[in-house]
């Protein structure tokens, strides 16, 4: 019992430096604003689009309902998930290795790359934790619960739910003759139970059609078929680093198959988690949670190695940990923003209560003050193309069904719907987070430039105010 208390306290002390620093107004705002819309009475897929399955925003909305809406509540939630996941990793790896030091190294790998790099609620983080629980239940031969957790993982992020499903099927294949169907059927019943409950929710909220439409349009059409979010795979040394989690997991699969087959579902889980997470968008942000999982297959390898090999892979674990701590603290936060070591200015706004860098310490109060001065409490604002955190912070409603408009993801018909909503709801204030030359939506861009004037510029942000067409024409002619 003492060792588990130690893991909890140790993980908490590690994460306490990270959880309240940084400001990802694009991706974190995407999740928080979606959860906010749920609390405003809106239903995902029916009233607003959401490109993922809805588990993350449901759990964040529940936390907001209980503790209040603020960035810091979402951060505390993910810190708790991080501590519990670290405890689960230690528990599982200690069963495999019966070696406290090796298990502690696997925990440190997770902490160094997981909730330290993505310290806000994000679907991949939840999916990893839930998928690991599903794999553990399969290892313990609790097939129904493993299937149920697989379905729940799917409801947090669709690609990782498929990864857990495939790893579970192969894990059962390697450990049981295919002729024994009872365990497989219990697993499928667990999945069916979870998906049936979700189907009941969709039907009862009249959101099934919207869910299917969102799933096809964003996941199948845009991401898979059109490759809107696609990126190239790095080459050279960087490419090897990006391949590292997958290669280690694959080695661990072979080791487990030869020597410890009853544990094979665990490296299979991390291997498929890697395969379904590294593409189509291969970048540092997507790599971090994949690297966080690598401590588990490293334990499989170390626990089945001779002394020299064990020392080598223990040393490799330490290198991975050091790189994770270094990049987490001293490299750019969430790839695009200044390092966490520079995030030391407290934002006391009740919807924030986090530490940010000097730029955002200046920008956030100015932006929110500008919005408050020009709008009434029940006014809509429009944030374009991708800074949805300012809906959340300003507590203003979004006039459209789209949380953000990134990457040229939406069609001209959807653009026109945005313009119609701006007209219909008489949106007075627009906040943009890019220069107008970079806007990728011509219909929305043209409407803004013809009907709004700049009233304030703050770093990359601009506040625009609606003007009468005659006044706008006079200004344009000056």
Structure description:
This protein is α+β, with helices and mostly antiparallel strands and 478 residues long. It folds into two domains: 2-338, no CATH class; 357-477. The chain is 63% helix and 7% strand. It has 20 helices and eight strands. It has helices at residues 2-15, 27-39, 55-67, 71-97, 100-113, 123-139, 143-154, 158-175, 182-204, 208-225, 236-259, 265-278, 284-292, 295-302, 307-330, 358-374, 389-394, 412-424, 442-451, 469-477, and strands at 332-333, 337-339, 345-347, 354-356, 381-384, 429-432, 452-458, 461-466. The strands form three sheets. A four-stranded mixed sheet has the order 5-6-8-7. A two-stranded antiparallel ribbon has the order 1-2. It has a two-stranded antiparallel ribbon with strand order 3-4. α4 runs antiparallel to α5 (100-113), α7 runs parallel beside α9 (182-204) and α14 runs antiparallel to α15 (307-330). The longest helix is centred in the first third of the chain and has 27 residues, at 71-97. It is globular, with a radius of gyration of 24 Å. The termini are far apart. Mean pLDDT is 93; it is low at 470-478.
